[in-house]
Write a structure and sequence with these properties.
Structural class: alpha+beta
Oligomer: single chain
Number of helices: 7
Largest sheet: 6 strands, mixed
């Protein structure tokens, strides 16, 4: 649907925002025609920047998803596409105020599933502020969810405002799906750690999320054959 230049532009939009997040350092501007790594640009002299949090030497991916249901427990379908509507747990980041998929940095030697369970507990359930008994209860319920089969949605480079010319974000987005909704119904969402707010959000092409998270959510909808876009539904009927 788009040429190679269009694909490159779409892959590096947020990575070209300025200034760098959490700083006053202005990013060197790169025009669309110079985005591709194979494009020669001899005059390019980018600003050298490393975030303070990275310089500190920390030891350092996402959604929990269910079907949207009515009061009787029946799946709700979209009136236009006719497909069932998926929901996912979204957190509102404190640093930029954008909604995002729960997740975080993988500690050295840590399995992705362990990272996801830990970060989801901290950001969406506020586990860090719970009593020992409450933490054990949360751990048991999360174990049931994160021990099941899951889908690896994406793994690799992501368009992220924190990217620099010599360091960039790579992520592994994983979908844990609560088919019946019973597991997540027993967990009370409560924002904690890096999250300012947390809530269930309907999945559609109207979502505006942090970094490349909308792309991951779209891939989940496609893999689960769930509603995503009214336009796509109209196009498919016309073919």
């Amino acid at each position: 649907m788009s040429g190679s230049n269009g694909a490159k532009e779409n892959s590096h939009n947020k990575a070209r925002t300025s200034p760098y997040p959490g700083s006053k350092v202005e990013r060197s501007q790169v025009p669309n025609e110079k985005v591709g790594w194979l494009v020669e640009w001899q005059d390019y002299n980018p600003v050298e920047y490393t975030a303070v949090s990275v310089l500190a030497g920390p030891q350092w991916a996402d959604p929990q998803i269910r079907w949207k249901r009515d009061e009787s427990g029946n799946k709700i379908t979209h009136p236009v596409s006719g497909k069932c509507i998926l929901q996912f747990v979204a957190i509102k980041r404190k640093d930029c105020g954008e909604w995002a998929i729960p997740g975080g940095m993988v500690d050295p030697g840590e399995k992705i599933s362990a990272t996801l369970k830990r970060e989801f507990g901290e950001e969406a359930l506020n586990s860090l502020q719970k009593s020992s008994a409450e933490k054990r209860e949360i751990e048991e319920k999360l174990h049931a969810l994160f021990s099941q089969e899951h889908l690896v949605i994406y793994k690799g480079y992501v368009d992220d405002p924190r990217n620099t010319d010599n360091a960039w974000m790579e992520t592994e987005a994983v979908n844990y799906h609560d088919e019946t909704g019973e597991t997540m119904d027993n967990l009370t969402l409560e924002a904690g750690d890096d999250a300012g707010k947390v809530k269930w959000v309907d999945i559609s092409d109207q979502l505006k999320l942090y970094a490349s998270h909308s792309q991951f959510i779209k891939l989940v909808a496609e893999k689960r054959d769930a509603h995503w876009s009214e336009d796509h539904a109209a196009d498919s009927r016309g073919l």
